[in-house]
Structures are given as structure tokens and as C-alpha cells.
## 1
Amino acid sequence: MADEAGKKRDESWLSKLLAGDHEAFAEFIDKYKEMVFLCCRTLGLKEDEAEDVASETFLAAYKGLSRYKGRAQLHTWLWAIAYRQAVSYLRKNKRTWELLDEQQGQGYSKEQTPPAAAQSNEYEKIVWDAVGKLPRIWAVVVILHYREEKMISEIAKIMRIRENTAKTYLFRARNKLKEILAPVFGEGFDVD
């Protein structure tokens, strides 16, 4: 019964949002601002740059709400806008994406990992720090797949790439993560 009431409330909110209700849009921004900033930071934008891109993202979303047809979930639709805005910003400002996986001396040592960290926050931090060492495009795919729980087809739509390309990026990212994390967790460590 509670789920049904929540679903009706969400549908009502979405209807108001699509109708241009300003309060509903303010809620929309509050609900999704962290996700938009995550996308921006994943692509390597500094805090002030991420704020600019987030503003542009929400402006583009506001202008595009009339075209939202519900084929994708709202947060997937917004992530796609944020991703395109961030990439556009990077292109306009002629910034290059650094391939962080080539940096030397950035690995972890076994001393940094507590012996019983397998399921702890420290474990997650180490893994997500390792994701930050991946090439940006691979890191985006990993974050979308594991943190945002997107399917390969959704990732391909968001990033405007083929599904096979998204699968390849995810495969390569997993292999690189195994390589990065092997000194910390041992050779038998698996990323899945």
C-alpha cells in the first residue's frame, strides 16, 4: 500500500514537472544535483567547472522537458544531458582527457589496506580510487554500470556509442582494475 502511494506521488510530481511547475523543477534539481556533479567530476571537471556544467545541464533539461517521453528513466535522461554538456565543455575549452592509468607511482601498497577490509568502506574507497586511475571514458562506463546500475544499452544511449563499444570499455576497465588492484588484494582478486 505504501509503495502504491509513493508511486502515485512520483507520478504526480513528474506530471507537475512536465507541466513546467517551478516547485517541481526545484525538487528535481535537489534530487539530482549530486548525480550531475558525479558525472562532471568523473570527466575531470574542477569544482567551479562542474558548477557551470551543472547549471547548463539543468537549463538544458528544463528546456527539453517537453521532449521527455519517458522511454528512459528520468535520471538516465538527465545523466545523458550532463554527460553531453560536460564533454561539450571540455571540447570548447580545449582540455584534454588525461589517461590516468599511465601515471607512475600512483598504485596502492598492501600496507594501505587493512587486513579485514574486504567489505568495509575502506575497500570501496580503494576500489573507487582505482576507478579514478582509469582513462576517463572507461571510468564513466564503470560508474554508470556499477554505481548508477545502468544496463549496457542505457550506457550506450547516454554516451552515444555502440553497445559493443560500451562492452569493450567495461571489459578493458575491469582488466585494468584487476591490474591496479592486484598488489593490494592479491592476484586472485576479481572485479565483478
## 2
Amino acid sequence: MVIWVGADKFVYWPYTQDPLTFTPARSSGLPVDSIRPGLMYTDGGSIPRPLRASESFSPWGYAPAYMVHDWLFAAHHCIVQGRPDAGDLRDRIEYDKVRAFSFDNSISALAGVMRTLMQNGRVSSDPSAFNAISFGVETAIARRLWDDPDPRKCDPVSPKDKALIEDALKSKSLRGLTAFSVGGAGPKPPVVIYQQVYGR
């Protein structure tokens, strides 16, 4: 689930019965057998401008790829800062996996998830979308973001936001974005922005 918790704040919540997990092909060259994104703040993926204008392109259609990619960056920054324990302890194994990742591996992982979604028919095969997104993250700017030593780049989900979500899940008051009414007060956070279940 991707959950809105406040202005420009979205949380990826992985603690479900069957969390998003990517198992790369053995030939991928990735240093792990699987990747399960952990609890993190996410922007849901930066959509390249040419694709935003396309009516056939749904930015959330590639959400699993964005979540894997965002997780690699989020975990990498906390590892660099020596703070992997700042996140949720349920993600400790996943943090340890990210230690083996390079910037180039992060690009391969994003492309691998997109390719899998296309091959499995979860999204339409769209070479222009694939190229724009996978090559869009292979830039000097993206590499600088990966290498950025700023301690603020390690930004684990705050205890307050985590408690907000956990309380809503316990009380079954976590609502979908469809509850929002334009012009009305709208729902208070947390609100589910994106949730998708994939069959095996």
C-alpha cells in the first residue's frame, strides 16, 4: 500500500500477508535472490515529462518498479549513514541485501521489474515507456543522488506516521482515496493512495 499521511508525504507500507517481492532472473546479474521493499517514504516515482502527456501512460502502472527502486535508494542512504537500524526491524534482512547493491544494480532492478510486469501482462508492452523510465534513472543526477552523503537522505518513516497507519489498520479506518470529495473537507490522513494485489 502507498498511504498519504500529510502534505507531500507518502508511505510505502509493506507489512501485508503477501508483500511485493521481486525475484530477479538468475541471468540479471543482480546480487540477491529477491528484493522486498521495506517501510519508507516514497514519491511514487518521478515520471519523465514526455510520458506524463501520454494518455495511454498510467504512472502508477509501474508502481512495483518504483517501489523497488525507491527502496534501494532509501536503504542505501541509511546504510551509508550507518543507520540501517533507524528503520523498522522487520526490514533488517532487506537492508542487509541492499549492502550488495551498486548504483548500476539499482537501474537493473528497476528495468527488471518493469520487464517482468510487461512479460506477465500486468502492463502493456510499451518500449517507449520502458526506455524513458529505465534510461531516465541512468543519469548523472541520479548517480549524484545515490552518492549524496547528506545525512538527511536517511529519512526513515517517523514513529508518528507509523503509529498513525498502525492505528488506522487496527481500527479498520484506513480509507481509499475515493472517499475524497472535491470542495468538501475530504478524508483526514492516513488515506490509501495506491494498493494493488498481483496474482502469482
## 3
Amino acid sequence: MKTPFAILFACNLNRVRSPMAAALAGRLFDGAVFTDSCGLFAAENVDPFAQAVMQEVGFDLAEHRPKTFQDLRDSSFDLVISLTPEAKAWAEDFASGRDMAVEHWPIPDPTLATGSREQKLEAYREVRRDLERRLVARFGRPSTPGA
């Protein structure tokens, strides 16, 4: 698949992995690709550790409002990327009968991390780095003008 026009990232609660992935993909594509995220269930708000590690690299997730597949205003995605085993089945069902590809990227749940605050933050940073690596591996690095 060439670079899609619209990508949906899906996880369980749309408060950690999927909003992180959508933000990172938005930067990778510099706004040329529409990105969104959802979960199987909607949490109250974004996870504070996810918010903190994304702020470290210039993203503000404070305005993100978790939503579900049912809450999506648009369903014209070229690609749905599920980030959890649970979201994989929902993504396949969502894409069924539509011209939409589905990929599954198993991303560990950093909310299960234990230890000090710093150890927990490091688990979230590893998720952020994993998502960045997967995005670049899948779509390549963006070209720069004059390069």
C-alpha cells in the first residue's frame, strides 16, 4: 500500500497508545495524511503519563478527548492500525465491506508498568519510541524540500 490518505489508530481506551500514534503520524506526514484515533471504550481523558512523554517531544495531548469506533464522525479511512489484540477484531469488523486495509501492531500496555514514577514514564517512552520506529519502518522518513 502506498501512503494512505487517512489512517485510524485503534486501541482499548483511546487514552494512551492510539492518541500517541495519531499524533506521531501527524508529525511524520506533516499534515498531508489525516490521522485519527479511537478505542473500544472511551476513557474519561488522556492518560497523564502519555501526556507527559508526548510533551517531551513537542505534543500537547491535553485537548484529546477519547472516543470509540461508534463516535467517529468519518469512516473513510484507507488504513486502520490496531495496537491491541482486542482492537484488532474491532478494526477488522469496522473495515469489513469497505475499501480499507487493516494492520495489527502489537504495542505493550505501559499502564501495567510498576516501580517509581520515572520507571513508569520510561515504559511510556518506550511505547512512544516503538510507535515512532514502526511508523518510519512502515511509511519511511518524510522527504524534505531540496533534499
